[in-house]
Design brief:
Strand order of the largest sheet: 3-1-2-4
Helix content: 10-25%
Order of helices and strands: EEHEE
Strand content: 15-25%
Distance between the termini: 31 Å
Number of helices: 1
Number of strands: 4
Number of domains: 1
Length: 80
C-alpha cells in the first residue's frame, strides 16, 4: 500500500493520511472522513516516507494512530 496525504485546499487547514494503491482510490477512501470537504477539490499527495508504517488501517486521522516510532504527519503548532 502507498501512503497519501489527502486534503482539500491548504493542507495546513487539515489533512489525513490514507493508504491506497492509487491517488484516486485514496481520495475515494477519504471521502467518508472528509464529508465537509469538496471531493472535487480534494488532493492526494504521495508520502513515500510513510509507506513502511502501513498497519492494516486505510485511514490515519491523527498522529496518535500511527505506529510507535513513526514521525508525525502533521503539526498542530501554528507558530512554526
Amino acid at each position: 500500500m502507498k501512503a497519501y496525504m489527502v486534503f482539500s485546499g491548504d493542507p495546513y487547514d487539515g489533512c489525513i493520511l490514507v493508504f491506497a494503491e492509487t491517488a484516486n482510490k485514496a481520495r475515494s477512501i477519504s471521502y467518508d472522513s472528509l464529508f465537509h470537504w469538496d471531493y472535487i477539490g480534494t488532493l492526494a499527495h504521495r508520502c513515500r516516507d510513510y509507506d513502511q508504517y502501513y498497519n492494516g488501517r486505510a485511514i490515519i486521522e491523527s498522529n496518535s494512530d500511527l505506529p510507535k516510532g513513526a514521525p508525525d504527519f502533521y503539526n498542530d503548532d501554528i507558530d512554526l
